[in-house]
């Protein structure tokens, strides 16, 4: 059984600092859900990556509703804490969740001048 599913987490993330080859520890992030009626984003929760760059329980089965979500990663603050300047002050990943029985894992790979993501398992 996966640890994230055991804790009831539908949504997890893992952030890696590929420039330095380390996990992006203590990187702040927030989760928002799209409100199509009002064309705005509604705040859901916040999190911070642990020492391994992972963050669990961002969206639990109790808070899940199908829809379009985004994770906003505070990458500018992260680079500033390291004494570096990054090009992107934040990174937002927008995605669709339709099935509450599936785990949704969104890794983020960052450097000061680039980022990439994919749907993980």
UniProtKB/TrEMBL annotation:
Q: Which residues form the Transthyretin/hydroxyisourate hydrolase domain?
A: 6-120
Enzyme Commission numbers on file: 3.5.2.17
GO molecular function annotation:
hydroxyisourate hydrolase activity
Q: Where in the cell is it found?
A: Peroxisome
Pathway note: Purine metabolism; urate degradation; (S)-allantoin from urate: step 2/3
UniProt keyword Hydrolase present: yes
Q: Which UniProt keywords apply?
A: Hydrolase, Peroxisome, Purine metabolism
Any one GO CC term of the record: peroxisome
Q: Does the keyword Manganese apply?
A: no
User: Which sites bind substrate?
Assistant: 14, 54, 118
- GO biological processes: purine nucleobase metabolic process
Instruction: Give the enzyme's main class according to its UniProt record, as a single word.
Output: hydrolase
Outline what the protein does.
Catalyzes the hydrolysis of 5-hydroxyisourate (HIU) to 2-oxo-4-hydroxy-4-carboxy-5-ureidoimidazoline (OHCU).
PANTHER family from the UniProt entry: 5-HYDROXYISOURATE HYDROLASE, URICASE AND TRANSTHYRETIN-RELATED
What does the sequence similarity comment in the record state about its family?
Belongs to the transthyretin family. 5-hydroxyisourate hydrolase subfamily.
Q: How does it assemble?
A: Homotetramer.
Q: What protein does this entry describe? A: 5-hydroxyisourate hydrolase
């Amino acid at each position: 059984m996966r640890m994230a599913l055991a804790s009831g987490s539908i949504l997890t993330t893992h952030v890696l600092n590929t420039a330095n080859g380390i996990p992006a520890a203590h990187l702040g992030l927030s989760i928002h859900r799209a409100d199509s009626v009002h064309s705005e984003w509604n705040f859901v929760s916040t999190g911070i990556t642990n020492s391994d760059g992972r963050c669990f329980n961002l969206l639990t089965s109790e808070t899940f509703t199908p829809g379009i979500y985004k994770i906003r990663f505070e990458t500018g603050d992260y680079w500033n804490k390291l004494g570096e300047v990054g090009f992107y002050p934040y990174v937002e990943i927008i995605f669709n969740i339709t099935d509450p029985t599936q785990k949704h894992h969104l890794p983020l790979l960052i450097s000061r001048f680039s980022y990439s993501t994919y749907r993980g398992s």
